[in-house]
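Quick one, probably user error.
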């Protein structure tokens, strides 16, 4: 290991923390919420605009936003701002903003430094305040003493790690497109009734309005099995899924561990996991199970409802569960103490849907199933890329892997 010209420095001398960004009160700027920052995903884009009233962290494109509050920091909510509709932006008051100093540090290297244990762990240890609202100490972070390499080595390290994050970003965009396509086809065929050959099918009256002739109105519970009974071996380790494993916008289920026992919800491939507790349901936490081995059973949080197709298809059940109507029906049934309200299973008896003919169900499934499978393949590829990146990160950032003699294009 060669660390020629590496220097031990004070972090506040090599990066700007909360740099000055002039914003005008009353003017609209790009805005980033804490919820927009996804742990382990490098880039974050502005999803909305907001009128600036004087508060919040201020940043520009390329800046690193670093969660300073528990549990967001421990969960790894650290990202680099990629796209803004306006030149400057602002966000949650619970962000620190990190920016490189020209000629001293590379901005991409600053991101990888921020997510490394060299910065993140001391920031976590510096937290103080009331339980559940502890915040990292800015002075502690500024005064951290760390070793950093010369600027050319910083760029090489950042380039190696960026190659992984860029592939992850490409795959993530492909996943989003595939999911949007599946939802769009579902809406066209089963909500707007513009399925192939619809021009030749007469619309008829029903208790839920006009539906295509040959379609039948059923209760959701007639088409979907709710919390199906599954036997499991108590002593055998099983993939365990908690609420954090579900996304608010994607079908992907990011399971993290195996557990023995039999408590909790039980599910198999093709099942949909539907959050039943507030605010997880309102936020859209819903997942599609396709990561298990054949006949394998998974365990999950008791706050899931497991939905399984009886006479539709697994893909249709998932896409239905993602619709606003279906979710609102469940939300209206919630009872319990404020902040801990839960869906009542009787709500699925009250939800009516138009069930298409079997041939159309088969045709739809034939179209969208490859999309679901491709999403899964891309998610597995991303998991592998993240694992490799996370193994390389500490070795590169500490100098354990020497990159001085590597010839990296563009550097």
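Nope, works fine. Designed sequence:
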């Amino acid at each position: 290991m060669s660390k020629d010209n590496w220097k031990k420095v004070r972090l506040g001398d090599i990066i700007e923390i909360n740099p000055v960004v002039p914003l005008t009160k009353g003017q609209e700027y790009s805005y980033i919420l804490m919820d927009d920052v996804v742990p382990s995903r490098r880039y974050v884009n502005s999803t909305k605009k907001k009128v600036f009233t004087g508060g919040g962290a201020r940043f520009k494109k390329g800046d690193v936003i670093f969660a300073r509050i528990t549990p967001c920091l421990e969960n790894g909510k650290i990202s680099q701002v990629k796209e803004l509709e306006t030149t400057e932006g602002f966000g949650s008051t619970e962000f620190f903003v990190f920016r490189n100093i020209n000629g001293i540090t590379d901005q991409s290297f600053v991101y990888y430094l921020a997510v490394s244990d060299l910065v993140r762990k001391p920031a976590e240890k510096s937290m103080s305040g009331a339980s559940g609202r502890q915040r990292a100490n800015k002075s502690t972070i500024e005064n951290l003493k760390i070793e950093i390499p010369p600027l050319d080595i910083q760029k090489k390290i950042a380039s190696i790690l960026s190659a992984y994050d860029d592939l992850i970003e490409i795959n993530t965009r492909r996943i989003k497109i595939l999911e949007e396509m599946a939802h769009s086809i579902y809406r066209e065929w089963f909500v707007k009734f513009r399925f192939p050959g619809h021009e030749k099918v007469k619309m008829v009256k029903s208790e839920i309005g006009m539906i295509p002739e040959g379609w039948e109105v059923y209760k959701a519970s007639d088409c979907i099995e709710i919390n199906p009974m599954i036997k499991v071996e108590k002593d055998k380790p099983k993939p365990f899924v908690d609420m954090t494993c579900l996304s608010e916008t994607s079908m992907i289920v990011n399971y993290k561990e195996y557990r023995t026992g039999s408590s909790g919800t039980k599910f198999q491939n093709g099942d949909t996991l539907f959050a039943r507790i507030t605010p997880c349901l309102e936020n859209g936490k819903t997942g599609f199970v396709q990561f298990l081995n054949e006949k394998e059973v998974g365990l999950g949080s008791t706050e899931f409802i497991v939905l399984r197709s009886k006479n539709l298809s697994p893909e249709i059940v998932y896409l239905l569960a993602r619709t606003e109507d279906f979710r609102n029906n469940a939300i209206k049934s919630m009872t319990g103490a404020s902040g801990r309200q839960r869906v009542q299973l009787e709500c699925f008896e009250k939800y009516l849907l138009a069930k298409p003919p079997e041939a159309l169900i088969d045709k739809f499934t034939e179209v969208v199933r490859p999309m679901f499978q491709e999403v899964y393949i891309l998610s597995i590829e991303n998991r592998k890329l993240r694992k490799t990146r996370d193994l390389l990160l500490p070795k590169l950032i500490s100098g354990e892997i020497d990159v001085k003699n590597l010839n990296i294009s563009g550097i």
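Residues 214 and 357 are 7 Å apart (CA to CA).
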